[in-house]
Amino acid sequence: MGRGVKVGGGLGGGLVLLVAILLGVNPDLLQGLTGGTDTPQVQSQGTAPACVTGADADARVDCRITGTVNSLNAFWPTYLKQYGVDYPRPQTVIFSSSTNTGCGAATSDVGPFYCPTDTTAYFDPGFFQELVDRFGSSGGPLAQEYVVAHEFGHHVQNILGYLERAQQDPQGPESGAVRTELQADCYAGLWVRHATSVADPSTGQPFLDPLTQTDLNDALSAASAVGDDRIQQAATGRVNPEAWTHGSSQQRQAWFSRGYESGDINQCDTFSAATL
């Protein structure tokens, strides 16, 4: 969950509270992890017309989220099956302003997040403009899709038993929290690697067109924008690795790239990595 994180220190004698920007899972919300549901669902809490075509996904952020969710839910079951792992599909909620979740009430301020209690990923499309305006991401389509894939990476971690490690060691440059977030970045890169070949069952066509370097740069830009060091520097003028919960910009880009370049989930084992 995009969580409130105390970083740096000393601005007016207090700590700076950064809310809703870090694309992760709140360790405080990881109590009582539960299994998922086999019913895929994208709920939109509004009155926007349905998302039907690829052109809809090109034109509207909510439809792009929906298309990305469909791609992720087509990719992960088949990929994990080769390791003997079932993939209970998570639900997805696209909301505006506020929503109720299994992890408690949430507003747009918290940014995108995954709640393990109800195995649901939550997205407010307005976040993606905030990612550009406030955090300097390039804002291209793959930047937005990276965010969705990262949250679904947390669902995969929930299935595989990694997600709870964030709570056991929630802060610091080598912490379980950082390793959890970087692994989700790696899983996002893994999906990107395969997204141009995984077909939509209803059409037989891949969910994504072949990627360009510009597309990949967009995803890397988003990963960099939400690095702990970059956010701390902007907020406090200094970097404090001991307060990290998600990893540096360079680390987030590196682990996304590792997933993309290898296409191998075994290369995403941040918990066994000697260095991040």
From TrEMBL:
Pfam families linked to this entry: Zn_peptidase
InterPro entries (alphabetical): Uncharacterised_pept_Zn_put
Subcellular location field: Membrane
Transmembrane segments: 7-25
Domain of life: Bacteria
Bilayer disposition of the protein: Single-pass membrane protein
Annotated GO CC locations: membrane
Keyword terms of this UniProt record: Membrane, Transmembrane, Transmembrane helix
Designated name of the protein: Neutral zinc metallopeptidase
Species whose genome carries this gene: Arthrobacter ulcerisalmonis
Lineage: Bacteria, Bacillati, Actinomycetota, Actinomycetes, Micrococcales
